[in-house]
Amino acid sequence: MTQSPNSLLSSIWPQFSRNGEEHLNPYYTFQDYRQTWGMTIFILMTTALLPLIVMALIYYQLTETSINTEALLRTERLASNTRRAVTFFLEERLAALTFTVNEMGYDRLTRPGVLSEVLRNLKLGFGGLTDLSVMADNGTQVAYAGPFNLEGKDYSDQPWFMECQQHDACVSEIFSGYRDVPHIVVAVKSKRPDGHFFVLRATLETERLIQTLSAFKTGEHADIFLINRDGLLQTPSQFYADPSRHVSLSVPAYSDRTKAVLSSDRSGLPIIVGYAFIDTKIAPTGFILMVVKQKASMMKVWLDLRSDINWFLAISAASIAIVITLTSTVMVNRIFHADREKAKTMALAEQNCQLASIGQLAAGVAHEINNPLALINETAGYVKDLFLIKEQYKEDTELVEHIDTIIEAVERCGTITRQLLGFARRFDIQTQSIDLKEMVTDVINFHKKEAEYRNIAISVDIPETIPLIETDRGKLQQIILNLVNNAFQAINNGCILDIRAEMDGPEQVRLFIRDNGCGISEEHLGKVFEPFFTTKKEGQGTGLGLSITYGLVQKLHGNIAVQSKTGEGTTFVVTLPVQTKKEIQA
Amino acid sequence: MKHYDILIVDDEQRYADMLARRLELRKLRCKACYDGRAAIKMVAREHFRMVILDLRLPDLYGTEVLTQIKTSRPETAVIILTGHGTERDREQCMARGAHSFMNKPLDIDRLVAIMAQIKEMPE
């Protein structure tokens, strides 16, 4: 089936509005087509899109969980590796100091020049040492090697010295001390032969430690630094330092293992924090290693992928929505059209049924009345005959007038009963080939005189292309005659009567009989085909003409319709089949 | 034996009598009968110039009576006068040899005119 663009557009455009056809409303199967349409679209959309969206959400959830787990593991591993490096850095230096005190003892170390020698050797071996000093058990510095002359200073109140007394070794936090340069103090305690203890202390440059940490940095958004247990930064942090040199994140609770947790920074961005409390084998330290990674950078690939999936999902949803909407519109349009056809047929059938039952009643009445009517006619006729024929009554003209009134009334009743019977009866149809133009011309000829007299212009336009019609001559003639009569009664002198015909498809002919007379008001338009309906004065019309015409058109398997506007005129449209189907004749 | 011109056949006795009287006023000799078999017998026995025949009779249908009359007396003209004549009845009657077909209530002048026409025709 080929469709022109116009009909394609009309099939996808919602057409199920029922305005202007209220008389058909009781015959519709569905009451609200807009609601039906909306429900169809909603149900189809839900069925099609819901699983898609749910699947996408589940997929996101699973992927995000697995990516989180993966990111946590990676951060934890990085923290663990960094912790090992920092621990090794500190343990290495503590071990060197332990070796030195045990190897050389208090006496040798305090000998002038020896400590400088040791410092030089250690610098060669490890590097990053600033100075060395030996402290007596009262905290007084007894020997010193290095760039500053700090001999004789009292360190007994220094926290590292106090801690060193408790443990065999200690690692200080990073502080600036007397020299105002950030450094770490590592110290080991040893016993002198006399039972007093002494402490060998080394000052480490923080530069080495910072370098060790930054070697583990991977990616732009990773940050590795040390804090103490109060959250004070020990090494610089790229992103998480606040003005008081404290870390801008919360200090984690103690754990002897490396851990990684999900958290968020001050601006609410998700981050992954890996941390480890640094302890050496010899001495505990106050350092906490922090490894902070921004989650967004770790999940970039996944987020890009998710954006692609979202686009795909949105485009699919839009296409599905369009297809569903179009399909629903087409389907509901079709249902609506079928339903409207059904409603029209039912409305018509009901009208026919009504007319038929009125017809049956009319026929019954006509039959019953006709016999007494005939008797009245004959009796009155006889009385009249007596008056006319017998000499003795001839003088009385008044009585003859009265009898004439009776006979006239009977004649009128007779006309009605004949027409009623004509309306009700279904005759066999005698089909003949009929030239419509010839027939219309014949009918017009009956009215030629009247038309001339009343100055009515009659125009007939029946093209040569109209074929011969196979139908009943008498009935068709009666139809045309009735309609032309009707028009003549409706128009004033000087008006126009226009008769034309056209083909309605290859199998039907449409005959238009149009006048520009008084027209039919809207309230009367629906009743014009009902028997006894007339707008004429009493006694002037029986009101059967159009209902008989209606019945005749039905018998010829045709249709009759009327269009009219008060004051503008009336058009009767008779549609007849070119071939009357014999098998459905009644 | 009295010679009749016309036989009126109608089941409604008063109607048949009334019509007979009207025609008699017009110097026509009429006889009335009220069912089909009687009519057939009468037509066979006596000579009528014409028969006015109703279609609805109590015993036989008018067309049957018509056929019988035309068989026994082809020269007799039959005028059908009925109350409920259809187009089909008219065609059937004309096919069976009826002279004319009229509907009730009757126009007496038309009937008289038709009868005058029949009288003109050679028997």
What is the topological layout?
The complex is a heterodimer of chains A (586) and B (123).
Chain A: H1 5-12, H2 33-110, H3 114-125, E1 129-136, E2 141-145, H4 159-166, E3 169-171, E4 183-191, E5 197-205, H5 206-214, E6 222-227, E7 259-264, E8 270-279, E9 284-294, H6 295-298, H7 300-389, H8 397-424, E10 431-434, H9 436-446, H10 448-454, E11 457-461, E12 469-472, H11 473-490, E13 496-503, E14 508-515, H12 522-525, H13 545-555, E15 559-565, E16 569-577
Parallel strand pairs in A: 11-13
Antiparallel strand pairs in A: 1-2, 1-5, 3-4, 4-5, 6-9, 7-8, 8-9, 10-12, 13-14, 14-16, 15-16
Helix pairs in contact in A: 2-3, 2-7, 7-8, 8-13, 9-11, 11-13
Chain B: E1 6-9, H1 13-25, E2 30-33, H2 36-45, E3 50-53, H3 62-72, E4 77-82, H4 87-95, E5 100-103, H5 108-120
Parallel strand pairs in B: 1-2, 1-3, 3-4, 4-5
Q: Count of helical segments of chain A?
A: 13
The total count of helices of chain B amounts to 5
Mean pLDDT of chain A: 83
Main sheet of chain A: which strands, in order across?
2-1-5-4-3
* Poorly predicted regions of chain B: none
What strand line-up does the widest sheet of chain B have?
2-1-3-4-5
Assembly state (oligomeric): heterodimer
SSE string of chain B: EHEHEHEHEH
| Low-pLDDT stretches of chain A | 582-586
Helical fraction of chain A? 40-55%
What structural class do helix, strand and pairing data of chain A support? alpha+beta
Radius of gyration of chain A: 59 Å
> Biggest interface, and residues per chain?
A-B, 26 and 19 residues
N- to C-terminal separation of chain A? 37 Å
Q: Radius of gyration of chain B from the CA trace? A: 13 Å
Spatial shape of chain A? rod-shaped
Strand segment tally of chain A: 16
Describe the protein's architecture and organization.
The complex is a heterodimer of chains A (586) and B (123). Chain A has 586 residues and is of the alpha+beta class. Chain A has 13 helices and 16 strands. In chain A, the strands form four sheets. A five-stranded antiparallel β-sheet of chain A has the order 2-1-5-4-3, with helices on both faces. Chain A has a five-stranded mixed β-sheet with strand order 11-13-14-16-15, with helices on one face. In chain A, strands 6-9-8-7 form a four-stranded antiparallel β-sheet. The two termini of chain A are 37 Å apart. By secondary structure, chain B is of the alpha/beta class. Helix content of chain B is 46%, strand content 18%. Chain B has helices at residues 13-25, 36-45, 62-72, 87-95, 108-120, and strands at residues 6-9, 30-33, 50-53, 77-82, 100-103.
